[in-house]
Amino acid sequence: MNYGYKKLFLPLILLTLGFIIISAPVLAQTPQNYDVTVSPVFLDLSANPGQTITEKIRIRNNTNSPLPLKISVKRLAGDEVGDLTLNEENSDQSLDWINFTNKSFVASPLEWSDVVFTIQVPNTAAYGYYFAVTFEHDIRTTTTQGASLTGASAVPILLNVRKEGAKIDGKLAEFKTDSNFYEYPPVKFSINFQNTGNVHIRPFGNIFITDWLGRQVGVLNVNNTQGTILPNARKVFEVDFNDSFITREPKIEDGQVVLDKDGKPKTTLKIRFDKILDLRIGRYTASTILVINTGNRDIPFQAETSFFVFPWMLVIGVLLFVIFAGVGFFNTIRNFVKRILRIFRRS
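Above: the chain sequence. Below: its structure as tokens.
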């Protein structure tokens, strides 16, 4: 039986329209992306007891749609490796010192918004207080798919209350490499620094690397991002030294780091011909000098460690090449001498 194209085309149109009508509510409720920029990335403030200070944070909605935001204040603390964490503990009521005109607003698309706030420091306040202003966006749909999107940004606030008894001090607890022996760089340095005072600190400085001849072969910066250590906390700063003719670097495929079965990055050798005179081999000494600035002076901290670099596979390859080349050269000379002697004997 022949139905014809027209009779088949009509049900197809109806089916397509039905699919669009059913899908439209779900698509309409799909949450937009959370994409914002905040400035500054942190606030480092000082105040006297009893003082009220006024500050502002700027936030830009980078999307093409209005973005509803909710503002809250949380406490900053340091974890076991010094990274900053957020919590809502408010035993000293210091979270209540920060007040906003509005704790929620709608950010206009592709525009900056100013968020003004005040901090009322009581007369009883002392030393350091650490907060984070968070901008949260949470849209949840009521569809059976349960689509949802949650986004948040945080701006740390480091408040130093000027009061007698403030102590700025620290301890360089450990300076080491992740291994004593390397076939090729990179060499990973680890600096464990502790805050033994009662206000936040930002240690910074350098690592100086010298070879077995006493020549300086590298200078590395430590904490050039101004990482903060809160009181009674510690932070581990890690710095890599990979300035060498041959280095090991993470293996990249399709723009992604390739991992092994244990989840660790695979590495591959990279030869940098612009560093051909910088082949690392032998014993190296690394010295670090860090300082804490008190506002009046710098408090220095020093430590030293050493490590070995020996590209044994490369050295063995070169030795084998030299041996085989030497044997070949010796055999060539010996055969040449024998041929000359035969000629002289015949004559």
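The chain has two domains: 36-161, 170-315.
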